[in-house]
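Service request form, structural biology core

Requester: graduate student, group of Dr. S.
Request type: structure prediction, single chain
Budget code: on file
Notes: please return the result as structure tokens.

Sequence provided:
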Amino acid sequence: MKQITSVQNPYIKSLVLLQEKAKARKQSGTFLIEGKREIEIAVKGGYVLDQILFLPEIISETEALQLSATAELISINKEVYQKLAYRDTTEGVLAVAKTKSMQLTDLKLSENPLILIAEAPEKPGNIGALLRTADAANLDAVIIANPKSDLYNPNIVRSSVGCLFTNQIATGTTAEIIAFLKDKKINFYCATLQNSNSYHLEDYTAPTALVVGTEATGLTEDWRNAATQNIIIPMQGEIDSMNVSVAAAILIFEAKRQRGF
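Core staff response, request fulfilled:
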């Protein structure tokens, strides 16, 4: 079994780049997963692990082996672990995993799908919260339109608490996604202030996509003009917007309620 005890090791330097640079993740087709629970969820979600790096003082070789039968096992010391880990509370283990294709054509939808679409979300915390909500509702898919962030950004991996691996995820341009929805005959309801009906008055029992935009600018005109119907969550306070993940949760669970959960 390989052992690495220096942060100057070229391989460790390459893993630091994976943490810090979207370009490095794209070029290598790999990313880092931190924590035993997250690694287990990723494997269950069909992700392939190349290497497992573990700190023997925290996790045994036997426990590390149980995470994957095929990944290369690498023992590291505390200095190396602290160089790579974002959190002090993870269980002394990291994995290098292969990224997945996130093409619209890869999605496997049910006969009556319920989908969440988010246009150009920027904050990793919001993206993670959207993925957690989608997992809680067992949605068919999450689609990111015009993504601003690499979804394998460690902040997104961390904030999603493993839900990056439990959801079917695809990305595409607004035009590509609208064409996809129309081709699949999926109604789509856009959360926006303009020309909107109250969200609870619409019928989401047919194939449905719920579309949310950014808190700052909302959805672009392309979405608003193409929507099956624009919808709004009535606001009774002083402000006219709420956190995007909260808004998405309200819409998603109304659709789930109509479908009998």
